[in-house]
From TrEMBL:
Signal peptide: none annotated. One of its GO terms (cellular component) is membrane. Belongs to the glycosyltransferase 2 family. The keyword Glycosyltransferase applies. This is Dolichol-phosphate mannosyltransferase. GO terms for molecular function: dolichyl-phosphate beta-D-mannosyltransferase activity. Residues 6-171 form the Glycosyltransferase 2-like domain. GO terms for biological process: glycolipid biosynthetic process. SUPFAM superfamilies: Nucleotide-diphospho-sugar transferases (SSF53448). It holds the Pfam family Glycos_transf_2. It comes from Mucilaginibacter gracilis. Keywords: Glycosyltransferase, Transferase.
């Protein structure tokens, strides 16, 4: 049975989705893909379903009504993937900011012993393309801030390109993951570490989208800034079972 599923949340990604699916499905390893679409009014889901006819055993779609947040999309996908017994479960953006070729490197890191492999922009310098300097600085120092608060040495805490072994997602109580935006990525890494799982950073080059519209907002950064403090305080009073 194929062992790897790539979860891709979508909202208005018609410019990117066909090219992305063809790229991932054309990789040397037999990756499956789960699209979690939040009712894209631009017809993203219809494009996926048209391609699905050619890949009925590799491409899947879960449709939800309206934008419910990145975190809830991934939680929905995680539960689906665990239920279907995939061993390696990936997060990846739909906009080509994450290079599909790096899926193989993330998977290999988990094969070689990582429980969570993070596609890291900052583990070997700053590897970001097409972002304004203000955005680079905000992202970089967000991870510095999170490291200071949590005392966990992950260089790219906000990274959204990851591979989880299934046992990590089985151990984490997914319904207790609080955040839905930018801070979701922080909370998942921190929770994995608190469970005793091994997190390994794999250097990648992150390239900002060239088509479509970014989903970033000021509220997402606000959630991350204040949420990290509450997450750290709550962790002091919570017992985490060892993974």
């Amino acid at each position: 049975m194929p062992d790897s599923i790539v979860i891709v949340p979508t909202y208005n990604e018609k410019e990117n989705i066909e090219r992305l699916l063809n790229k991932v499905l054309g990789l040397e390893h037999d990756f499956h893909i789960l699209i979690v679409d939040d009712g894209s009014p631009d017809g993203t889901a219809n494009i996926v379903k048209s391609i699905q006819r050619d890949y009925p055993d590799r491409l899947f779609i879960e449709e939800r009504s309206g934008k419910q947040g990145l975190g809830t999309a991934y939680i929905h996908g995680f539960k689906w993937a665990v239920k279907n017994h995939y061993d390696y479960i990936f997060e990846m953006d739909a906009d080509f900011s994450h290079n599909p070729d790096d899926l193989i490197r993330l998977r290999q890191a988990c094969v070689e012993g990582a429980d969570v492999a993070v596609g890291s922009r900052y583990v070997s310098g700053v590897n970001v393309v097409n972002w304004p300097m203000s955005r680079v600085m905000m992202s970089y120092f967000a991870s510095v801030y999170v490291r200071f608060i949590t005392q966990v040495e992950i260089q790219d805490f906000t990274a959204g390109f990851k591979c989880f072994k299934r046992r990590v997602l089985e151990a984490i109580e997914l319904d207790k993951i609080k955040f839905v935006g930018y801070a979701f990525q922080i909370e998942m890494k921190y929770t994995a570490v608190k469970h005793g799982f091994k997190v390994v950073e794999v250097p990648i080059i992150f390239t900002d989208r060239t088509v479509g519209t970014s989903k970033m907002s000021g509220g997402i950064f606000k959630e991350a800034f204040f949420g990290v403090i509450s997450m750290r305080i709550n962790a002091m009073f919570r017992k985490y079972p060892e993974g």
